[in-house]
Structures are given as structure tokens and as C-alpha cells.
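Issue 218. Parser rejects a valid record. Input:
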Amino acid sequence: MAEKIVATLLSKTLEQIPKYSGKPDQDADKWMKQALKIISTFLEGHPKQWFNENTSNRLRTRQQRYDEIVIEYYTDVIKLCKLVDPNMTDASKLDHLYHGLKPSLMKDVLRGAPSTPADFLEQARREENLDRLVTTSIPQTNDNDTQAINYSNNSWYRSTQSAEPIRDPNSSNIYSG
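Output the parser choked on:
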């Protein structure tokens, strides 16, 4: 009799968790947290210990992938932090965030000395955007071209010497490059 009551209660609890489809009004972290709490109630002994250790291990070994943007990395690390210890301090969260951050971002984010995970995210996103701007904005040089880049007001201008003459729009003069 007691087993039937427990099974019924668990079944009703599972039914209360809505299906997750990734819609903008759904909170993935909240949904995952609810689902994992329920899953862990079905585990005991070695499987429960494995479940808890697995989450800790995933957090300890989490590295930002080469093609992974900062917001995805940050969201995953913070989710793992909450699963491992819902009361984890900001300092511990920052340690985990730094530990797996791409080396190309590490120095500049460290220089900013963020004091909270939100500050970390802001600085890391800023550095990521600057890296993306630099790598996509600088044109590739060609042996036949001489290029100058003028960085002013966050934009660049390319001047290329070529064999084609340049006309001065204010006169009839023609200059060769």
C-alpha cells in the first residue's frame, strides 16, 4: 500500500515538470535543476554516489571548446556549480570559470579582475568580441598589395597601392599609386 502511494506521488511529481522544447519563455537551467533533483531521488547507494561524483568531475574537467562561445561555456559551468553545491561562493565559481577558459581569453579577463561571475561573463564576452573583431576585420595581405589600417572610431580603412591611376575628384589631375 505504501509503495503505491509513493509511486503515485512520484508519478504526479514527474507530470508537473513540463516538457522542455527550448522556447524563449522556458528556463533551461530551472528545468534541468528540477529534472535532476527528481532523477537523484530514484538513485541510492553506488549509483547515487556516482551521479554526484560525475557532476563534480564534469565541473573539475570542464574546458571551453575551441568553437564554443563564452556564454555557452559560462552557462554550463554555472549550471554544474549549482548542481555540485547550490550554495557555492562566487569565489569558487570564478575559480571554476577561470580553470577551463580558453587561453586566448584568460590573460585579458584576469587583467580585469572580475569579482563576481556576472563580471567574469561581461569581461570574457568583451574580450571574445574584440578577438572576433580583430580576426575578421584585418584583411589578408597579398604580395602585390601594400595595406595600411587606420583604427579610429572602431573602424578600419584599407588603402591599397595598385597599378591603376587614382583620379582626384576635385581636379583633372591623375596620380599613379
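Fixed in the parser; the record now loads. Confidence is low (pLDDT under 50) at residues 146-162.
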